[in-house]
Amino acid sequence: MDQIAKYDTWSASEHYERYMGRWSREIADQFLRWLDPKPELDWLELGCGTGALSSATLRLCSPRFIMITDFSDDFLNHTKHVISDPRAKFEIADAQALPFPDAQFDLAVSGLTLNFVPDRHLALSEMQRVTRPGGTIAFYVWDYPGGGMGVIDAFWSAAKALKPAASELDEARRFPFCTSEGLTNLCTASGLRDVTTTALETETVFPDFEAFWHPFTLGTGPAPGYGSTLSEAELAALKQAVRHIVGQDGPIRLPARAWAVRAN
Ligand SMILES: C[S@@+](CC[C@H](N)C(=O)[O-])C[C@H]1O[C@@H](n2cnc3c(N)ncnc32)[C@H](O)[C@@H]1O
Fold first, then answer.
1. From CA 246, how far away is CA 239, in angstroms rounded?
2. Is 21 in the pocket of ligand 1 (CB under 6 A)?
3. What is the CATH number of the domain that holds 110?
4. Does ligand 1 have an atom closer than 6 angstroms to the CB of 9?
5. Which of 108, 154, 247, 264 could form a disulfide with 127 if both were Cys (CB 3.0 to 4.6 A apart)?
6. Residue 10 alpha carbon, nearest atom of ligand 1
7. Is the dihedral of CA 26, 149, 237, 8 positive or negative?
8. Range of 31's domain?
9. In angstroms, rounded to a whole number, what is the distance separating the alpha carbons of residues 234 and 244?
10. 3-class DSSP assignment, residue 37
11. DSSP class of residue 216?
12. What is the pLDDT of residue 4?
């Protein structure tokens, strides 16, 4: 694991849910409405996390079955525990080496995961390999370079102002390809065809600053992972700097925009 990715802690499901899963749930519904799949298809999901996209698929898309995967035992077990639908199957899988035969699924999907996979080309070609000819490969990622995840943007803006070295951890810098053009190029270079993208938008709303800040203290995900490496005094200074950016009175509302991609 490289020095930057070591902060991408993927465990402690309840903490992830507070930090990001709840916003992914809102985007998942929009993503599936945009995808508009036929019923009774065989689905594969990569990087299920706490099950935002898996649950939405079962609720909205009438799959024949969905194979739900993640490389984290902790997340997969959590999702297994919360989804009792008989159409759901579960397996540990690294997106870069899927343990499935060729052409086994009609759709391979993923939410907020592809950017974290070290070899994204390999992950996309694996998705294509296990998808039947004429099937669909589709995913969504936050619009990090466009400041589309306002919560994360505020955190890194403050962190970089206090410690310039934090800039290399900022997801906007780590994942510059998370734009419509960048993702189209990534898919095309990975051998996918007929690539289309769309923006999906929601709003993250917190009743007050403490509710906004709390998920950053839980250690799960890149920004909270970075926060957990700071001293108490450094974390207090960071909290103060973030408060200065987002404001401290009343509800905090920030935009959240993801890019959705579909291809064959
Ligand atoms: C930001 S979370 C997204 C979780 C969920 N899909 C959502 O939308 O909330 C990223 C997920 O990708 C998983 N992940 C990261 N790298 C992976 C890899 N190489 N193979 C499979 N899963 C991976 C993590 O364990 C984590 O569950």
1. 11
2. yes
3. 3.40.50.150
4. no
5. 108
6. 25
7. positive
8. 5-263
9. 15
10. coil
11. G
12. 61
